[in-house]
Every structure is written in structure tokens, then in C-alpha cells.
Amino acid sequence: MIEVARLTKNYGTAFAVRDVSFRVDKGDIFGFIGPNGAGKTTTIRTLATLLTPTSGDAYVGGFSALRQPREVRRLIGYMPDTFGVYEEMRVGEYLDFFAAMYGHKGPKRKQLVHDILALVDMESKREDVIGGLSRGTQQRLGLARVLVHDPQVLLLDEPASGLDPRARVEIRELIREMGRMGKTILISSHILPELGDLCNKVGIIERGQMVFSGTIQEAVRLAGGDRVVLVQFATNGDAARTALEAHKWVAKVEAADGTLRVTLKAEAEGPWFIAEAATAAGARLVRLQEEEINLEDAFMRLTKGIVS
Q1: 3-state secondary structure at position 161
Q2: pTM of the full predicted structure?
């Protein structure tokens, strides 16, 4: 659905992005990660047809952002990190204005505004003046605005920037709902734990160059992160531990608060063998859970802390 192909943008001798390539498939929620000045916004603005690259191209739905901008704009909803709003307008008027700009008329437009307000949980704010809204509520309104023409692809540049914890949770749940609706979403953010919970794929960019693109699990493996399984037994836990410590696919076993942390070797195919080994040792298994993958650790290991 999205393809960035050897994208380069330079200003004289300074490069904003250099030879950036990655792909986002239909239905993906793709987290775009990098420090300030890494090139995230440059890439997103190119996809949004707002910036002309020095070389390379970016495609949405097979259309070139460089050569077919009108077709791309029909497919995308772009939400920048900071956006202007008409502060003296009311919420309902604001969305009605943009619905009219996209050609919606009469009862259909009225119903569309109603449905979008319901989707972002702002029906009660319909008559409120925008200038009096909190930043978090204005962010929700900004997301509502980009949904007016029902885009297939959402480009969200730091949508939770500057929000309090509750507002961040609300924005995250809205984005998750957009994913359930089948939207393809590219979202940049500095809040890595939230992206780890929200996204199925990530791209890491540093100093204008891609460091990684793929699943979070692949990022952790590339970074050399250990694969750890948490195990608890109802009976014969000591015997199970002894069996696991001797298993060819186990690197080490640690005990803490009645739970075993079993670190797997790189060649281990999966944690299923743990249940087999425990049963053979006469233990009764009550918990087998792979430890949550830490996107922050992977990011810190794959990047060098360099900014443009």
C-alpha cells in the first residue's frame, strides 16, 4: 500500500533523508521511529505530496507521490504534528466545512459529520468553540478531520505529541479502531512502548538513513535480544527446572517469585518443547508465556544516538 523507494532529500550538502526504502502492506499499522532530525517528517511529507524529493520516489496505492499527486491525495489522510484550526468555529461547523470541501452534500453530509463525531467520541462537543478545547480534544478533532473523505491510508506524524497520559490513551484507542476498520496506518512517535503495543511493524531511521524495517520480533532478534519464556508449575517444579537446564535449546534458567525465566538459545524453534520437557519430568504446567518483546531495548541497540 505504501512503498518508499530510495528516497533522498538534500539541501545543498545537508541530507534530510538518504536512500530511504521501506514498504507498508495493506492493513499494517507501521511505527516510524527515530530521534529528532532523523528524517521522519521529511519522509511523511513526501508521501503526503507536500515535499519534492531530490531523487527516488514514494508510492501510495501504486501511485507516485511525485508524478501522480492528485491520485495519492484521494487515498491519504495526513495529520501533521502541529496543525492549524479555525479557533472561532464550532466543532460541527468545522467538520461540515471540510465535508463540503470534499463534495459531500445535503443529508449525506450531515450524517457523515454525525458519524465521524460518534467515532471520535465528540458528539457532546459539537457546539463547542474549537479555541476552547483542550489540546487532546483538538488532536481528536484533527484525526476526525482527516477521516472526512474516508482515506485508505493514514499518515500520522507524532499524533500524541504534547498530550497528557489520558489523552494519549484516547488517541491510541482511536488509532487502534482505525486499524480494525482496515486502514493502513503509518505513525511516527517517540513513545516507543505505545508503538510496541499498537504496531505490527516498525521502521527505524537515524540520521536520514533506514536502520531497520520489519516486525518488532525481527527487530529484537536483529538487536541480539534474548527470547525469554516465563514458566510456572503446580507440582515437581524442581524436577522440571533440572530437565530444562539440561535441554539443548535452553541457554539459562533463573527463578524469581515462583516463576522460572527460561532463556532460549538462538536455534530454538519455539517454546513448545518446554511443556514436553516438564511433562516428561512429572511436573504439571500452569503457565507458559513468552516475555513481552521490548521495542525500546531494540531501538537503543540498533541505533547509535546520532542526530542530523
Answers
A1: coil
A2: 0.79
Return the SS3 of 56: strand
Question: Using alpha carbons only, how large is the chain's radius of gyration in Å?
Answer: 24
Cα–Cα distance between 148 and 116 in angstroms, integer?
A: 7
CA distance 79 to 91: 17
CB 213 within 8 A of CB 235: no
Distance separating alpha carbons of residues 93 and 254, to the nearest angstrom: 60
Given strand 2-11, what is the order of strands in its sheet? 14-24, 2-11, 55-60, 63-64
Angstrom distance (rounded) from CA 41 to CA 147: 20
pLDDT score of 124: 94
Band of residue 130 on the pLDDT scale cut at 50, 70, 90: very high
Q: Are 226 and 251 in contact (CB under 8 A)?
A: yes
- Walk me through the domains of the chain, giving residue ranges and CATH numbers: 2-214 (3.40.50.300), 223-295 (3.30.70.100)
* Contact (CB, 8 A) for 110 and 53: no
Query: Which residues pair with residue 20 across a beta bridge?
Result: 7
**Residue 121 Cα distances to 88, 127, 180, 204, angstroms:** 21, 14, 17, 32
Cα separation, 15 vs 251, in Å, equals: 43
pLDDT tens-digit readout, 57-75: 999 999 999 999 999 999 9
